[in-house]
Amino acid sequence: MKLTLTLTVALLAPLTAMFAAEQLPKFVAKPLAVEILAASAETPDRPYLAFPAILDLGAEVLVSFKHGRLHAGDADATLDWLRFDKASNRKLSQGTLAAVKGEIMQMGEWVQFPNGDIANYIDAQKPRVLRTGLAVLRSTDGGRTFGPVQRMGLVDGVEYGYAFDAISRHGSTWMLVMTFANLPGGKLVYKYSSQPGSVDVIRSDDHGRTWRFVRSLTQELGGAPINESAFVAHGDGFLIVSRGYDDRQWLLRTDAGFKLVAKTNLPAAHPFLKTVDRPRLFQRDGSFYLLGRNRVGQRASELALFRFSPNTLAITRHVILDTANDQSPGDSFYAQPFWQERDGQTRFHIVTYKRCAGPGLDIVRLEFDWAEVR
User: Longest C-alpha distance within the chain, in Å?
Assistant: First the structure.
């Protein structure tokens, strides 16, 4: 009798977990404030402002974003930037961060090194989505000024084309990057129009002056076709999220050397989670969160926040921060957060891009009560 009961419970456990996941309620958050940080109306000839990345410097926030005409293929698109003051909610300055004649500057990723230097790694392209190799520029004065645009160059014989995320701790910096078949060392792992390859982990012990290869996440997943990824430290190891081209969304737990320990395909376990584009991971107040654009239809998407367990890798809370309907899901909601204490409350800020009242897309700040959202 005891054996039968044990087996029955064991068999029902996955079904119970799946039912619970399907019934997980959505919480729709209401913003306390919405502010356009950079408006397409100011440059109607180049109204595509998109793909923001932020770096929280404490009192101020740096924001980089694409400034062009289209999602891709628009030569001479620049990477712009702005500085935002937290205390006053005021934009301090705005301008061009990187411009290369005949090339597309987009998807800039901020990295702050242990010595305080700040760099921005740019997904440099030619028209027709042809990667030209990571471009980088560096600041040695806390992000006040930046040097010229340079090529990152080879890392153990490989030139990378797209940087996703970076973590600095214990005097070292790790970065998630992607190979491409048209770049040196970039073998074609699976065929798509832009010819992506492997998502790799690289490491620098000299503040980004040189890098070395650590591990291929693509190989850790048995060659799964993955692209946009993010990671966060967890104990001695890491938690990693990767978007698949095959409608799978991987959440991983690894050891300190990025060797796979556990994994889950989130959409299979949680049907309300479809594909989280340009995902971001963070830890706050003892909990772990996944933030990104959840595609909920052919022409609909939501900016979603998911709380998850680092041990079971299961989603435990689903929060909708914003929605977009009747437009391409590709035209909204790459996002990153920062926090601020105000009037005895912790304010949760999101910098994202979306279609507002202007002719194109705008860079927007959304503000929430963190106690309500978390």
Answer: 76
Question: What values do phi and psi take at 139, rounded to 5?
Answer: -120, 135
Half-sphere exposure of 236 (CA within 13 A, CB side): 5
Across 182-207, average pLDDT: 79
pTM for the structure as a whole: 0.91
Burial (CB < 10 A; 0-12, 13-18, 19+), residue 361, is buried
* 265 pLDDT more than 80: yes
Question: Residue 352 CB: number of other CB atoms within 10 A?
Answer: 26
Split at pLDDT 50, 70, 90, the class of 12 is very low
pLDDT score of 61: 98
Dihedral sign from CA coordinates of 348, 243, 167, 135: negative
pLDDT tens profile 27-51: 999 999 999 999 999 999 999 999 9
Coil, helix or strand for 198? strand
Measured CA to CA in angstroms, residue 272 lies from 26, 166, 191, 208, 308 at distances of 9, 28, 28, 39, 14
Q: Tell whether the model's pLDDT for residue 11 goes beyond 60.
A: no
Q: Which long-range contacts (CB under 8 A, 24 or more apart) does 150-154 make?
A: 152/121, 152/211, 154/184, 154/185
Q: How confident is the model at residue 14 (pLDDT cuts 50, 70, 90)?
A: very low
* Alpha carbons 77 and 269: distance in angstroms, whole number: 39
Q: How far apart are CA 170 and CA 288, in angstroms?
A: 21
CA distance from start to end of the chain: 43
- C-alpha dist (Å) from residue 294 to 29, 189, 282, 290: 15, 26, 17, 11
Q: Residues 211, 227: contact at Cβ < 8 Å?
A: no
| 146: Cβ contacts below 8 Å, ≥ 6 apart | 97, 120, 137, 138, 139
Q: List own/partner pairs for 95-98 with CB under 8 A and 24 or more apart.
A: 96/67, 97/64, 97/137, 97/146, 98/122, 98/135, 98/137, 98/149
In sequence order, what are the residues at sequence separation of 6 or more whose Cβ sits closer than 8 angstroms to the Cβ of residue 75? 102, 103, 104, 126, 127
pLDDT of 75-93, one tens digit each?
A: 999 999 999 999 998 999 9
CA nearest to 182, candidates 209, 161, 212: 161
In terms of Cα–Cα distance, which of 130, 119, 73 is closest to 97?
119
